[in-house]
Design goal:
Order of helices and strands: EEEEEEEEEEE
Structural class: mainly beta
Helix content: under 10%
CATH topology: Immunoglobulin-like
CATH architecture: Sandwich
Strand content: over 45%
Largest sheet: 6 strands, mixed
Radius of gyration: 15 Å
Number of domains: 1
Number of strands: 11
C-alpha cells in the first residue's frame, strides 16, 4: 500500500513495470496511472527498462481514503497490458492536520 497525505504534491512513485518476460519495453507506448477517478500520465524515465515516475498534483490527493490504482499500457501495436494484472495497487490518502481548508 502507498500512503500519502491529503493535498501533498510533487511526491513521486517510482515504478518498474515487469511481466513474465522481464521489464516491459515502454518505447512509443502510452502509459496511464488510474487511481480512483483520476487519470495521471506518468513520466517514462527509462523506456527500455520499463521505469516510470508518477507525480501527484493537488487534485489527485484531495479525496481522503483508500483508492484502487493500476497502470494501463497501450503499446504502439495497440496491445494493452494492465499492471498489476492479478490485483490492484492500493493508495491511502490520509487527512492532513489543520482542518479541511488548510490545504487549499
Amino acid at each position: 500500500m502507498i500512503t500519502i497525505k491529503q493535498y501533498d504534491t510533487g511526491i513521486g512513485i517510482k515504478v518498474t513495470l515487469t511481466n513474465e518476460d522481464g521489464a516491459v519495453d515502454l518505447t512509443d507506448a502510452t502509459v496511464l496511472f488510474l487511481m480512483g477517478s483520476n487519470v495521471i500520465y506518468p513520466v517514462v524515465t527509462d523506456a527500455d527498462k520499463g521505469e516510470l515516475l508518477v507525480v501527484f498534483e493537488r487534485k489527485h490527493t484531495a479525496k481522503t481514503g483508500r483508492q484502487r490504482a493500476e497502470f494501463r499500457v497501450t503499446h504502439s501495436d495497440n496491445r494493452v497490458e494492465t499492471f498489476p494484472s492479478d490485483s490492484y495497487l492500493e493508495v491511502n490518502i490520509m487527512q492532513h492536520l489543520g482542518g479541511e481548508h488548510h490545504g487549499r
